[in-house]
Design goal:
With about 220 residues, this protein is α+β, with helices and mostly antiparallel strands. It has helices at about 1-20, 20-35, 45-75, 80-105, 185, 220, and strands at about 115-130, 135-145, 150-165, 165-175. Strand 1 (about 115-130) and strand 2 (about 135-145) form a beta hairpin.
Length: about 220
């Protein structure tokens, strides 16, 4: 690098000697102007400075490497058990039905002032009618307590969580013990034990609706 700079300086000095006296005076007068406007990046670092910067960058990378390795060791990949998957699904469905129930309770005068707590899930059936329309039917039980008398009962409810073009809609209503309205979507999945309200208000599907991800054997389809 020093040899290259020396050759460039000698070349510039030779060119400067060939110039006329007027050009030399002009360049000499302009030199402070250009010196003030040259960006700092035009100054080439010395070989010693470059080597020091490279060594510092290497040391910083080396000090950071153990930290990354430490994080990888502290976060091992964990297999999720089948029991945990089932429990997570139940927790998610519990939140869904209680959200539907809370919306029903807000407009129900019969439940005003009563304490309502989730008891357990019953039957449930997931239906996909179109790629942009899905709905999930549930039976679930709620413990209803009168705080003034401590009387309580467990009531059966139906809930539907429907999603159309990414927007969720909730429907919920109580069920009588033997009440069971018609639902083609659940019936086609052999979920006849899932009770539906006789008054409607939910998605029923159609007679030819089948679950789109159901496997059909070649022998069965012929």
């Amino acid at each position: 690098m020093d040899k290259i700079l020396a050759v460039e300086r000698a070349t510039l000095a030779a060119e400067f000697d060939k110039m006329s006296a007027a050009k030399r005076v002009d360049i000499t007068a302009r030199s402070p102007y250009f010196a003030k406007r040259l960006p700092p990046t035009w100054c080439l670092p010395s070989p010693a400075a470059s080597e020091a910067q490279s060594l510092q960058a290497t040391e910083q990378a080396s000090s950071a490497e153990p930290s990354r390795q430490h994080l990888l060791r502290r976060q091992p990949r964990r297999e999720v058990s089948e029991e945990e998957i089932i429990q997570n699904g139940k927790n998610w469905m519990k939140k869904e039905v209680m959200l539907a129930f809370d919306k029903y309770k807000e407009r129900s005068s019969n439940l005003k002032g009563l304490d309502c707590q989730f008891e357990k899930l019953g039957r449930q059936c997931f239906n996909v009618e179109h790629y942009n329309k899905i709905f999930h039917h549930y039976n679930f039980f709620v413990k209803i307590t009168n705080p003034s008398s401590s009387d309580s009962r467990v009531a059966l409810f139906f809930a539907e969580v429907k999603e159309i073009f990414g927007r969720a809609y909730y429907f919920c209503c109580p069920l009588e013990q033997n009440e069971n309205g018609r639902c083609y979507a659940c019936h086609n999945q052999e979920m006849d034990d899932l009770q539906h309200p006789a008054t409607g208000g939910y998605e029923r599907g159609s007679t030819d609706t089948v679950f789109p991800f159901m496997y059909v054997d070649d022998g069965e389809s012929s």
